[in-house]
Amino acid sequence: MTLSPAQCRAARGLLDWSQEQLAQASGLSRSTVRDFESGRHEPHRGSLVLLLQTLAEQGVELVAAVDGAGEGVRFRV
């Protein structure tokens, strides 16, 4: 599954994390997170993997768009 900028922002909100906290936890720079979330650029595949792993380690699950409902995030049950 891929991570959209909106899902990344929503996941940070769910965790109550700043861009800096997500960057530090994933080993990336704040500018990488900021530029991805703002749609300035798509991160390298390795950076995307680190973001996904970090969010998963915190219990965040991505929700795909289904039957007209938009994509999202939630805590894993």
From TrEMBL:
GO molecular function: DNA binding
Positions of the HTH cro/C1-type domain: 9-62
SMART domains linked: HTH_XRE
InterPro entries given in the database record: Cro/C1-type_HTH (IPR001387), Lambda_DNA-bd_dom_sf (IPR010982)
CDD domains registered for this protein in UniProt: HTH_XRE
The protein's name: Transcriptional regulator
Organismal lineage: Bacteria, Pseudomonadati, Pseudomonadota, Alphaproteobacteria, Rhodospirillales
